Amino acid sequence: MVAITVVASASQGCGARGDAAASGQGLLFVEDFESGMLAGWPDGVDPSRQRVMTGREFAQSGSHYLEVTYPAGGDGGWLTRFFMPGYDSLYVSYYVRFPADWRGGTKLVGFLGARTDNQWSASGKAGVCPDGTDFFITMLVTEPTGNPGPTRFYTYYPGMKREPDGVTCWGGYGDGTEKYVEPLVLSPGTWHHIEFMVTLNEPSRSNGTQQFWIDSVLRGTWSGIEFRSSPALRLNAVQLTFNRGIAGGPTAQKLWVDNLIVAKARPPVIPSSTSQ
User: Is residue 237 part of a domain?
Assistant: First the structure.
């Protein structure tokens, strides 16, 4: 991925305002889109596919929300926020809404694990097998088997299954030890609260964990993961990723996002939007 110039300086974005507001609450980043800008995201902003919209009657709360456009045959891009040099555990919470006519699956939100000396070492790694010292990636996706399909983990880690050529890897939904609790489908036409928590393993030990919640109910747990063999890899970016796969989708579609927070751990009470 190549950095794209953002539309405003970071000091003007609601992400920056959220950082200040959250400093006393143990949070790292808050994005409620109330500034009308995407200045809190230093990588990926594309005004042709990502726009902050106004509409109190539609927003999850406040009066602004993010609208993502997936062009026919393509995807909605991504938005990345870095947290260098990184953390050994991170939590992200946000709201997502699918339209009634949504078709297929999409990636949702995830964490990038780059080297502490190179924040880009986990970028542009589709199809690449990690070796424990270069990168890892873990995210949540909806399967393409429904409209949308069930929500799953989608993880690149050193012990993952390789393709028949022995050198290609595609993110995996699990290794057989993961536990999913139905229902896992996000109903179109309503806002859903998604939470995702990852705790890294101690280097060269298989004791990493990840969990996700849908509307405050634990729906996915995957334990015993070895994300890394080197302490140089840490959780150091959160990414909203709007990708429908290599071929994209056959039709143009929209998706909506609101009220994102990033913290070191899952709060006992989910903070309200800074706009309230």
Answer: yes
pLDDT, tens digit, 9 for 90 and up, residues 75-116 = 999 999 999 999 999 999 999 999 999 999 999 999 999 999
CA proximity to 240, closest of 95, 54, 85: 95
Query: Which amino acid is located at 99 in the chain?
Result: P
The answer to whether residue 6 is domain-embedded is: no
Strand positions, DSSP E, 12-100: 27-31, 50-54, 64-70, 77-87, 89-97
Question: Total domain count for the chain?
Answer: 1
**How many CB atoms sit inside 10 A of residue 67's CB?**
18
pLDDT tens-digit series, residues 136-182: 999 999 999 999 999 999 999 999 999 999 999 999 899 999 999 99
SS3 state at 30: strand
Of 268, 235, 250, 270, the C-alpha closest to 80 is 235
Containing 20, the helix (H) or strand (E) segment is helix 14-22
* Alpha carbon distances (Å) from 77 to 1, 21, 48, 142, 241: 10, 28, 10, 16, 6
Residue 158: give its domain's CATH number: 2.60.120.200
Enclosing domain of residue 221 = 68-263
Q: Does any domain span residue 35?
A: no
